[in-house]
Amino acid sequence: MLHHSIQLVDRRQDVTLTTYILADSPEILNGKKRPAVLVCPGGAYLNCSDREAEPVALRFAAMGYHAFVLRYSTYFEGAGTFPPAKDLPVNPNSLYPAPLRDIGRAFLTIRAHADAWLVDVDKIAICGFSAGGHNCAMYAVKWHDPVICDFFGAAPEAFKPAAAILGYAICDYRLMFREIADPFIRDLGDAADIAYFGTKTPTPEQLAAASPVLHVSKHTPPTFLWATAADPVVPAENSTRMASALAAAGVPFELHVFENGGHGLSLADQATAGSLWDTDADAAQWIDLAGAWLKKRFAL
User: Fold this and answer.
1) pTM score, two decimals?
2) Which of 28, 121, 140, 295 has the most CB within a 10 Å radius?
3) Neighbouring C-beta atoms of residue 145, cutoff 10 Å
C-alpha cells in the first residue's frame, strides 16, 4: 500500500490528501486501474474527525478500492478544541466555498497521479459524514459549477464524481435552524455556522445556497444515503428530503434510516468507537450495504 500525505494548499499544512493506494500485482488486476473512494470526515467545519477518516478509508480499501482521506479547510485548521461560540471570531480560511474547492483540489491531484497510482478516474466516489457529508453533498450538486471549474480553470469533466455516499449529512440547512434544548448542541451549531457562513445568523438566501436538496439536477451522481432516526444533531429528515429531491430529478439513490444510534457513528463498531455510545449493531450494517451498492457501479 502506498500511504502518504500530500499538502494541497501552499502554506496550509492542515489541508491534505492522504493516500491508501493498493499495490498492484499480476495475481490480482495486473496493471488495470481501480476505482477509488474519497473520504471527507465530519467535524462541524471546526475540525476533521479522526474517527471518520482512516478507519473508513481502510474499510473501502479492504473492498478493493483505492482510498483517500481529504482533510479540507476547517475553522481550527487542524488544531484546537470546541469553545463557546461567543469566543469565535470569523476565520476566512474556513468559509464557503473553501471546503468545497478542496474536494476539487483532491480530484485534480488524483487525476494528475492516476497513471502512477492506477486510479480509474471515471470511477471516483465521494463519501462524507455530517459536515463532511454536507461538503460532499454540495460537491455532488456543484462539481460542474463555475465556483469550482472557473476557479481552477479546468473543464467540468475533471471534477465529476461517479457516486456519492452520505452519512448523517446536512442536506437541507434550513432544518438546522430549529429549537434545540441541549446547550452543547446549540453552541456547536452556532460555532459551525460561524465556521461555514461567518455568522450565527445566516440569511435565508445563504441557507438556501448551502442546501443541496435545492440544487439536485440530472448532473448529480447516484447517491447512497444513511442516517439514524434518533440523531439529535442532524435530523434524519435531511436524508429523506435529499432522497425525495434525487427521486424528483431521476437520479438513482438508496436510502437507509436506522431506528437507533446517535450522531457521529462513523462505522458504528469497535473500529471507530470512542465508547459504547459510538456503536450500534444495526447502523453498522451501512458499510456493507454501501459496499454492495457501490459494487453495482464499481465492480472490478
Assistant:
1) 0.97
2) 140
3) 18
- Quote the CA–CA distance of 151 and 54 in Å, as a whole number: 29
Structural domains of the chain, with CATH: 5-298 (3.40.50.1820)
pLDDT in tens, 199-246: 999 999 999 999 999 999 999 999 999 999 999 999 999 999 999 999
Instruction: Report the relative pairing of strands 5-9 and 12-20 from DSSP bridges.
Output: antiparallel
Whether the ω angle into residue 232 lies within 30 degrees of 0, i.e. cis, is no
- CA angle centred on 179, ends 176 and 184, rounded to 5°: 80
Cα separation, 300 vs 295, whole angstroms: 8
d(CA 132, CA 169): 7
Question: Cα angle vertex 52, ends 47, 58, to 5°?
Answer: 135
